[in-house]
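Troubleshooting: if your tokenizer reports a length mismatch, compare against these two reference records.
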Amino acid sequence: MRYTKRLLTTVLLGSILIISGCSAISKKIEQAFAIKSDYYTQTQSGGSIENRYKGLGKYAVESQVLSSGQSRFTTYKIWYPTKNQPR
């Protein structure tokens, strides 16, 4: 009886440690591949055209979410310049 209780405790603690370790590793991997909010300033490109157009424009933008009426893509998000509002 005592051996069974000890074995069960060991297996339970080992499982908890393995699950928490996998969860921590998964979060680290997810953070490593996440797109950062200022990705467009960190991107390295080889051409002058890419460098010209990769940055933000001179106008502030607003967005609107619209329903698509489809099952695969349920919504569309549209960005447009805010009226006469430079950055």
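Reference record two:
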Amino acid sequence: MKRVQGKRIVTFGLLLLLLLATGSWAAEGKPVNVNTATMAELMSLKGIGEAKARAIIEHREKHGPFKNVDELKNVSGIGDKLLSTLRPQVTVGDVAQNAPAPASNTK
């Protein structure tokens, strides 16, 4: 019985270590696209908990995709300080895709 409990504790510890390592890797890795991110992906960002992740998703669903990272300030609970923390962690995707086509210079 004690042997089984010991294995469970070791397994739990290893899982916890793996989760912590994965979370820190995600924060240092590829930026999270706030226009496509899931609740869990948003919550992996420093400074974003369940309430702010939900607010980002609700804002995105109501107003459409974010055109730039600065638009996150329009989300309830996100101000200048949090935005500066989020800026290196997030993206809005391919900005060129959202930009208008340049005017033609043909005469």
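Descriptive notes for reference record two:
- The radius of gyration is 20 Å.
- Residues 95-102 have pLDDT under 50 and may be disordered.
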